[in-house]
């Protein structure tokens, strides 16, 4: 499986003042290895998918629902042209009750804090699946009816509900989903011991987050290995086996992505962008940029400007 990791800014962010966002994709869908700080509900409607969760692969050939906890490394690749899936990303903070409410103490707060977890998979043979799918389908219908659409790089579209009335109905739908899960006994307590997959995923998340927060500075591989608690050579092998590129290649690729963004959206000089993105040798920056994009930074800026006209 291609374990390319998304070099964008999606990981670690929360949606801006939105209770939930719906993503839908068909055909040749590919979601690179990434994570999010909000829970997600995937509905694999038809076709086949290769799903990876915390570095463990799972092939999906039948319709099912999949809940992905915040911080879980996940990657999805459609295996057939007739594949169709939906992803609902939602914010549990929008479903708060008063502190005195028993539902807040026994259910909603434990869910937000991660002490209580959603089930990983719900299949068509599970009790409650029909009810869950009915409520989810109603949410999807509402997104289609009133949602604002925008394309996403992985393929498919992103839909948002903005009006207060739609947001209120959305919250009601989310609460119905949680209520069905609780009634069917599908909510579970978090495991106290961290498994190998979760531990390895945490090391990757923390390493990638450090790179993204410090890409403008000099980053030493030994610092990454020390933060992970791994031997430097083992860390390099582990990172490459998990991500598909070495730590240095990933750092440079991320810096190039940020440079491309600056070239499209600012009037800064090329050498200023290079330095701000962590390249302190302009010749090395141009060489790596050309290798990645097929053109020089100046040419890229010119082509980007022409494409917007």
Characterize this entry briefly:
The chain has 309 residues and is of the alpha+beta class. It has 10 helices and 13 strands.
**How many H/I helical runs?**
10
Mind summarizing the main beta sheet?
7 strands, antiparallel
* Helicity, as a percent range: 40-55%
**Can you name the CATH architecture of the largest domain?**
Sandwich
CATH class of the largest domain: Mainly Beta
Structural class: alpha+beta
- Spatial arrangement of strands, main beta sheet: 10-6-3-8-1-12-11
Q: Please trace the helix and strand order, writing H or E for each element.
A: EEEEEEEEHEEHEEHEHHHHHHH
How many strand units? 13
From the alpha-carbon coordinates, what is the Rg to the nearest angstrom?
A: 21 Å
**Averaged pLDDT, please?**
88
Q: Considering the protein shown, what is the CATH homologous superfamily of the largest domain?
A: Regulatory protein AraC
CATH topology heading of the largest domain: Jelly Rolls
**Percent of residues in β-strands:** 15-25%
Shape: globular
Count of domains: 2
Distance between the termini: 38 Å
List keywords for this structure.
Arc Repressor Mutant, subunit A; 45% helix; globular; 2 domains; alpha+beta; Jelly Rolls
């Amino acid at each position: 499986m291609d374990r390319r990791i998304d070099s964008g800014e999606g990981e670690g962010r929360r949606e801006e003042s939105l209770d939930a966002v719906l993503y839908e994709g068909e055909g040749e869908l590919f979601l690179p290895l990434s994570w999010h700080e909000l829970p997600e509900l995937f509905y694999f409607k038809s076709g086949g998918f290769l799903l990876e969760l915390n570095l463990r692969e799972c092939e999906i050939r039948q319709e099912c629902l999949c809940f992905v906890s915040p911080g879980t490394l996940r990657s999805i690749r459609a295996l057939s042209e007739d594949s169709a899936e939906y992803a609902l990303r939602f914010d549990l903070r929008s479903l708060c009750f008063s502190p005195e409410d028993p539902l807040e103490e026994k259910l909603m707060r434990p869910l937000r804090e991660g002490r209580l977890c959603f089930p990983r998979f719900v299949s068509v043979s599970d009790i409650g699946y029909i009810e869950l799918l009915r409520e989810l389908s109603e949410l999807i219908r509402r997104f289609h009816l009133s949602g604002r659409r925008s394309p996403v790089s992985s393929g498919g579209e992103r839909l948002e509900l903005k009006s207060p009335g739609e947001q209120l109905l959305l919250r009601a739908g989310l609460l119905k989903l949680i209520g069905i899960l609780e009634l069917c006994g599908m909510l579970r307590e978090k495991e106290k011991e961290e498994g190998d997959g979760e531990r390895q995923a945490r090391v990757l998340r923390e390493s990638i987050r450090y790179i993204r927060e410090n890409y403008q500075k000099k980053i030493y591989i030994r610092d990454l290995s020390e933060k992970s608690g791994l031997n430097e050579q083992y860390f390099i092998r582990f990172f490459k086996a998990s991500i598909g590129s070495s730590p240095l290649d990933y750092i440079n690729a991320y810096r190039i992505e940020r440079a491309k963004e600056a070239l499209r959206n600012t009037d800064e000089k090329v050498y200023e962008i290079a330095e701000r993105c962590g390249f302190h040798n302009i010749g090395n920056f141009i060489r790596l940029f050309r290798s990645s994009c097929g053109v020089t930074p100046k040419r890229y800026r010119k082509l980007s400007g022409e494409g917007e006209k």
